[in-house]
Amino acid sequence: MNCSKSGNLICKGLYIGEEDLQKINTLTRREFSAEELYCFRVLLCDNDIDRDMEQFDVQTLTQLSNLFLGKTGICDHEPKSQNQMARIYDVSVENFPGKVNALGEPYYALIAKAYMVRTEANRDQILEIEAGIKKEVSVGCSVRESICSVCGKNRNVLECGHVPGQVYDGKLCYTILHDAQDAYEWSFVAVPAQRQAGIIKQAGCSREKNGVQKLWEAARTQNGVWIDREETSQLKELIQNLLEDCEQVRKAARRELMQEVVSRKGFDERTNQEFGQMLDHLSVGQMKMLKEILCPQQILEDAQFSQAEPASEQHDEMSNRQFMI
After folding, report:
1. Cβ atoms within 10 Å of 170's Cβ, excluding its own
2. Which of 168, 178, 228, 280 gives 145 a disulfide partner, CB atoms 3.0 to 4.6 angstroms apart?
3. What pTM was computed for the model?
4. What are the pLDDT digits (tens) for 191-200?
């Protein structure tokens, strides 16, 4: 399941220490000084229940902490090189003592440190961050399971019928996002919505929109697209099935043409073998064209049979009407 979760900047103009520089320079092609960089802390997501009645468990947040390391920050989820703004160089799951989530559980959040290189081109962006104009972010990731809090079933496999937000025998129904598979990107967005962090949880990729639909829409709009591991596996299986189906159709067309040509032309064994080898390199359309050239009489007979068939069916229908009451 793909999802987009939200967070916000919690520290602007972060002091850059020696440890920060070391971590940043492992991601760069040359070493940068503290004066060349601008760093900030950002809350990516947490273990609270959001407005879609979904919640990351702490284990998944920990998995995401590894997956988001080194990921690029962009604008409005547009995966274009000119939209790249910052990169995460450190990320961890932090507990906020004394703070609890909506369930009364200890509150945990995924906190990242990101850096930008100070340039004339991004001077206004840094100024907007400092001014609090750019402070909301949204992250894109995928999880393996969406577990119902009431019955424990995986909603990605089968809907259990429990409605998120409803209470069943005193137990609140919500969806637990479990087992992170991939982290795509984090993006500066405009509209806040998540309860704790104040950032919108955007409708990323719905369950109904599979990898093929995403690729089709990306081709239509000429935009980039994020494909997670599960969708990649589904696309691979789909393509493999299509290739197998195409091969079966091609083999059937080859077999039909071989039988037709051999019966009409009376080729010897060597000629049959060479003819078969030639067909191995032809497409279904090419074999159809070759049949029209080598067996024009059969094509004519097939056409005449097709024209006569509707009349026969009409006769059968008229005959059957005699038995209607």
Report:
1. 5
2. 178
3. 0.57
4. 543 444 433 2
C-alpha–C-alpha distance, residues 173 and 176, integer Å: 10
User: What distance lies between CA 191 and its chain's CA centroid?
Assistant: 23
Which residues are bridge partners to 42 per DSSP? 9, 112
Please name which of 45, 35, 49, 53 lies closest in space to residue 10, comparing C-alpha atoms: 45
Say which residues have a Cβ less than 8 Å from residue 207's Cβ, sequence separation at least 6: 1, 156
Q: How far apart are CA 88 and CA 112, in angstroms?
A: 6
Q: In this predicted model, what pLDDT tens digit does every residue of 40-92 receive, in sequence order? A: 988 999 999 988 899 999 999 999 999 999 998 887 666 666 678 899 999 99
- Which long-range contacts (C-beta less than 8 Å, at least 24 apart) are formed by 26-34? 26/89, 27/70, 27/87, 27/89, 32/117
Residue corresponding to tokens 């005959």: 319
- What letter represents residue 264's amino acid? R
Rg of the chain (C-alpha set): 31
